[in-house]
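Box 3.1 A note on notation
Throughout this textbook, protein chains are presented in two layers. The first layer is the amino acid sequence; the second is a token string describing backbone geometry. Keep the layers aligned when reading.
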Amino acid sequence: MKPARAASAGPQFAPAIEQRYQNDLVPDKLAIFVRTNIVAAGLFAAWGLFDPFTMSQGVAAAWMVRLAMVVLNLGCALLALRQRALFARHYTAWVSGIYLCWGLAMEAIIALAAPGDLAWTAYYAGLILMTFGLYSRTYLNAAPALAVGGFYVLTYWILTLQVGQIGTRQDLLVLLTNSFFLVSANVVGLLSLHTRDRLARRAFLLQLQLKGDVAQGAQAVREQQHVARHDPLTGLLNRHGFQQRLDELLASTADGRGVLAVIFIDLDDFKPVNDTYGHAAGDAVLRAVAKRMRAALRATDVMARAGGDEFIAALVLAEPHGPALRKLCASLEHGVTQPPVWEGQVLAVQASLGSATSSEFGADAAVLVARADERMYAHKRQHKAARRADEAQRGR
């Protein structure tokens, strides 16, 4: 991700990234706005202690202005907390509006004083304080921030020239000095805003890149774990993955709820398929058989390729488990005996199955697999014996 272009306040992103950046700033914007309004309410109230000493008239009216600002600040903080979405959508209006209100309030308090009062010179320090807050305690873009800062300078000139008294050289010097510091505060603040925005955007890009790297790393780990636990040909679990899932199923039946069943499946007549049609045909048979047997099981059941043409399944059955287990074994056998077609050739195979349950042999994974394997070979011998008998019958 690269910045799309550069602007006065720092590098700007492509629209989608810019939206993510702005959304990421919302919690910080809200927290700063609330804290700043609370601090401003305290400052407006505390500053009123100086009014009797800096103003020869209008002290009561100045205190009313200060009280209004305290109520406004606390109300804005509370409203922003309750209307976070509205605050986020109209952040510039909220912040610019409150800073404009602060400037107007300060100018009003100064105007209430008599020309020549100390407030006319001393209270402009408040405008400088607000200016620094404007650039350092907000996420305004350069244009609205500069507009508010310029409003402070303009209203200061209008108030001083229209209401105040510029009758002496000293008065003119005060006007020029205060104007210099107000303008300087805006220039310094604008440079600080530019630098902070540029650094914040760079940090956000690094954050996105780091998240992307972490996500890619996590995905790579998941893929490695999948490869380590699954058979690449059929997509079923391999022996290692099956053992892990078998242990989990055993743990789920430790409290006596349910019976764990293990079913071993071996394909009969698979070697002739490989010898006659090649390994590609054998792979097609294995994939087709695996898909059909997996479809015969529930999502919570476990199916794995044990190796070669051997498969193994594990599942938890409710009591009584006998009928359900026999039905499932029949479904698995039926899935195997449905002959897949490969390049126009019907590739028929048979299945020998053997099952073992925890109710028979206890909750020992190795024992269950071994007993299911033994019964599968017994079933295979029955198939071979039946086939020899059938061949002998046909030869008579």
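The mean pLDDT is 87. Residues 239-395 form a domain with the Alpha-Beta Plaits fold (CATH 3.30.70.270).
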